[in-house]
Amino acid sequence: MYIYAIYATREVITVPSQPKSQSDQTKYVECDDCSMNSVCQPVTTAKQSINLSDSYLDRRIPAKTNNVLFQQSSPLTDIYAVSSGVFKLCQQTDDNNENIIGLRFPGELIGEDALYLKTYNYTAIAVGDSSVCKVSVEQMASCGKLVPAVQQNLIELLSRQSHVKQRNFQAYIGKKSADSLLAAFLLNIIERNADYTGLDDGIELPLSRNDVANFLGLRRETLSRVFSKFQKEQLIQVEGKKIQILEQKKLIKLADF
What we know:
Layout: E1 2-6, E2 12-16, E3 43-44, E4 49-50, E5 57-63, E6 68-70, E7 78-84, E8 87-92, E9 98-104, E10 109-110, H1 114-117, E11 123-126, E12 130-136, H2 137-146, H3 148-172, H4 178-197, E13 202-204, H5 209-216, H6 220-232, E14 236-239, E15 242-245, H7 248-255
Helix pairs in contact: 2-3, 4-7, 5-6
């Protein structure tokens, strides 16, 4: 089985669905911490427990930097959960600019909103070497007709992801200053990755400063200025891509969480 991917040049290639190219040291999210978990488990009926997930689920498919899972406006075929790495969600504007509208970290879903629209609302791109678990919507629907509990598990999956997205939205709503936006961003992504990294006060930021500025709607120069300000005030410590929170309470107050 193959998953189509597109590099920054938009050349279509194929990527084998077995993670042979990834290092054995790749850290994957624990299944218990993944939003996809509810549809990966055996389904219990009155008489037996049935594992149907092999019929519609492919696990830990590798995606290299800039691989595209799907393109904006393309028909829905699959939904995904990030099992390692990070993906950015991009929308093309009318003037051909690309806006980053979301980020997905290990354990979070990608493409689930297309279950209603039947087409993808954005393009999903791997930020670095990453991997996903993939659910075939058509095959899962067929299993759901035979075993209704599969449909119930899908509803549970979507409800969990809806809760996550609502919390992420609330993290940024009403933030007017660049200081508040960056503080909220750092706290939000550290919280979302805590189970995966084992840290609740730091993260290795996988995104470029340009991508962070794009996502927050800031100029690159403004973002750099605020990063420098936070370091000067000893709110954070930055070493390369590693960011350590030094004054969490002050950042929380600044972010108005």
